[in-house]
Design the sequence.
């Protein structure tokens, strides 16, 4: 991962969109020690991949950013400002010569609750970075372990303060789960609820093929509404797709599994808890072709 | 809350303790947009209150910082560096004229996993700040609601990647729980596990008096080992104190409840889920007298 560019945003709302976007060196510190983003993980974010010079699925990402902000009772993001800044960043990283061979650019955009002392406007920025082109992992697949997320499947309804379903900066548990996967000789994680329902990955949405249908768990279970999974479902109009509860056992019964995310698209699961899984390379290719072709 | 001073720490380990402590203006941004502290809440912290010019219970805080770092698989903190920096900050904020009337100084110290791009040393800082003197709340007591923490009481053993028991920067759920308390007309929260065991507050340790004994929940339940609660138990040698599981119903049965934290000491609960509770002002005063008298 390489940082390519950074825009600090003025979220006070007093300046025009153009005057609110401030390019800075990505190595320049822009967050205060008193910012709630770094003190409490108190903020929200999105990451959009850049293809054809544009941030893909930007409207879906902006909608989800606003949803996450709502769940955290943060001010509603100024949509036009974020849209402009992310698009500008995507254009800037798409200039020939910016990316090295084997890299793919993405734009991460972050809004925190702002300074704990000043209690003024939120803090915001847009980071352009180069990640690994996912072509290889889409073909090779990924090794996954199933880990307990600890919460019941219904805590989003019973206990909204647990912030399930919000894409927050408080991702330490996701990082720890990925370290646990590494320890077990795997690359990634599928979380299940404390009461045995399949949820999502720490950075991806699950699609399982069961009885000829593509199934993803419902957002009511506190999983993030997947922008990439949604576009896969939209694009496969000839197949049967649906949102439904999956039990832990359904993972074993499924004849194919995918983890979907903005930066990697649809990645097939080749190993689950150490057991080899079949991959449908033809359908994976079709999914990623439709994802990569998206214009916006 | 007012920021009083800020030291940025060089945690590369290559410099001497003195050369690793860099005073900066607290308003100067010191965290990069690519730091894992702000991107993932991936870091640990402690807060020590300053009395008699010294950070109280510093050894306990340093031990707990190292414990949290271990749970997150962060590098072990360089104890002598953190000790020196926190002590120096405590001295600096204890100079006459720094604090206003009704303020009490505390030192917060933070270590993140460092930069996501560079993957070098952790990022660290020490912040001196002025909070509200707790004398009033110790007398008036606090209004508390009981909220579900979502996890079973034993996840620290079954699912260590959930990081229960670590004092991390990923505190968005704690903040959301405190907002829920406000919404319900209260000031603070006592978390219970999904299976009905009493845990702790989002920023405090619980002590309940039951059948003449002072009881606090065990750290095996994923609660933070309370430095303040431990000193209260140590100081009340003539009373019966113990660590034991408490059920939700025990909160109703208890004839007194306290929330203990570094910055406020022992604060009695005056209302629980809207119902008035008796407070033992004499014992509260005794607890805080012994806490405030600690020399280090």
Sequence:
């Amino acid at each position: 991962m390489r940082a390519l560019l950074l825009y600090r945003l003025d979220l006070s709302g007093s300046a025009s969109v153009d005057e609110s976007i401030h390019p800075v060196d990505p190595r320049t510190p822009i967050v205060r020690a008193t910012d709630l983003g770094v003190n409490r993980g108190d903020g929200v974010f999105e990451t959009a991949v850049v293809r054809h010079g544009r941030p893909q699925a930007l409207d879906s990402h902006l909608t989800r950013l606003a949803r996450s902000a709502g769940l955290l009772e943060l001010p509603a993001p100024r949509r036009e400002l974020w849209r402009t800044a992310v698009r500008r960043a995507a254009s800037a990283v798409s200039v020939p010569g910016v990316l090295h061979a084997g890299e793919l650019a993405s734009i991460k955009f972050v809004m925190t609750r702002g300074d704990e002392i000043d209690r003024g406007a939120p803090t915001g920025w847009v980071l352009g970075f180069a990640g690994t082109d996912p072509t290889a992992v889409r073909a090779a697949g990924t090794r996954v372990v199933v880990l307990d997320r600890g919460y019941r499947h219904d805590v989003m309804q019973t206990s909204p303060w647990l912030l399930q379903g919000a894409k927050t900066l408080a991702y330490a548990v996701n990082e720890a789960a990925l370290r646990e996967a590494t320890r077990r000789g795997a690359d990634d994680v599928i979380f299940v609820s404390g009461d045995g329902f399949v949820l999502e990955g720490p950075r991806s949405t699950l699609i399982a093929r069961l009885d000829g249908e593509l199934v993803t768990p419902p957002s009511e279970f506190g999983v993030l509404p997947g922008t990439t999974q949604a576009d896969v479902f939209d694009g496969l109009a000839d197949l049967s797709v649906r949102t439904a509860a999956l039990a832990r056992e359904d993972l074993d019964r499924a004849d194919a599994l995918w983890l979907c995310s903005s930066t990697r698209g649809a990645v097939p699961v080749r190993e689950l808890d150490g057991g080899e899984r079949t991959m449908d390379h033809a359908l994976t290719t079709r999914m990623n072709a439709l994802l990569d072709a998206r214009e916006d």
